[in-house]
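Can you give me the bound-state structure? Components:
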Amino acid sequence: MSSLNVNNLNCQRGYNQLFSELSFKVNAGDVLRITGTNGSGKTSLLKILAGLNAAEEGDIALDNHPVKSDEYQSEVFYLGHLSALSAELTSIENLEFLTGLNKSIDQHLLVKALAQVGLKGYEDEYCAKLSAGQKRRVILAGLFVSNAKIWLLDEPFTALDPQGVKIVEERISKHCAQGGLCLFTTHQDSALPNQKVLAL
Amino acid sequence: MNIYLQTLKRDLRVAIRNPSSVLNPLLFFIISVSLFPLAISPEASVLKEIAAGIIWVASMLAVLLSLNALFHHDFENGVLEQMVTSHHSLPLLILSKITAHWILTGIPIILLSPLLGLFLFLDSESVKVLMLTLLLATPSLSLIGAIGASLIVGIKNSGMLLSLLILPLYIPILIFASSAVSQAQFGLDITGQLYFLATILVVSIMAIPFVSSIALKISLE
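Here's the bound-state model for the whole set.
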């Protein structure tokens, strides 16, 4: 059973020490909710885990594969604050490119994924014309079809309506039931069962 | 290799749907070259002598003008973050973006150059040399420019900074390329200059995607 091990992580931004000697372990099937006040380092932690930022000190590994290794990176899907969509491309074109960055996925699966997040009929709509919530749903559709084991979701519920939040929570539960890991941050109440909490 | 073509296709598609970012530098190129005969002299003997220099300076500035957009949009909308976290090689993805940039600025400049060359009374032999130098050196302009573009991607209003960073690196290309055309006008041998431009291109293709990927990762932190 795979697990994500974080040891003695130390993160500093400018003169601010965000967190130090942070150690935790997330096993396959676990959901970890990261909580903390604004500026406590939740996004920084997720970016470090995604390999975008470097920590001052500490080790991160997925089953002995360190954070920068190909084995680790191919198992990670990072969903940040930004939409990751180009306004000039349609939903399906954006999805094709984004999922292609990890693994090529058949177009009919992408269309199906869009339908699952409530965007049936929006495949050929330019992303410039979508609302903030709809844009969020497009990238979430990309997350749901990805084969990544570790989901790092920074405020995944932002701009989503209650129904959208429910879809995401269901998918997170399903992903973890199938042996995946999910780490997420949110300021909203989350009804996810069996979630562990990490307070920064 | 598949991801290289996929990224290239995506970048070209984005550019075609937002043509102003591609057309502005090209319009600048055409307008700036066509103003010289009005300002200096319409005499064939005068224009012929400075034609290569004018076209080369204008094309360099046009490329510089287009560089800001190379990574900027992808940085703002978060696509760059996804590229860095992808398990594909980041230098390969960057090389693909640079190729798209060259197709959108370098190739149109090469295709427009004979027209502008004739406009400045360049003879057909010199036009051929001009096109050859542009073909050899515009990819280097895109590649070298990518270093600057990746360093300044997180900084707002950084056009001036980009010019300061990149222009000194463009100078050797400018000198060798324009001297090749003017020497060809006198029937002199230009193999030395062409080899020099080719060497810069080969070294740039091999090294710059890696340098640029390191710079991008630093900018994203």
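A couple of observations. Chain A touches chain B through 29 residues (CB under 8 Å). The radius of gyration of chain A is 17 Å.
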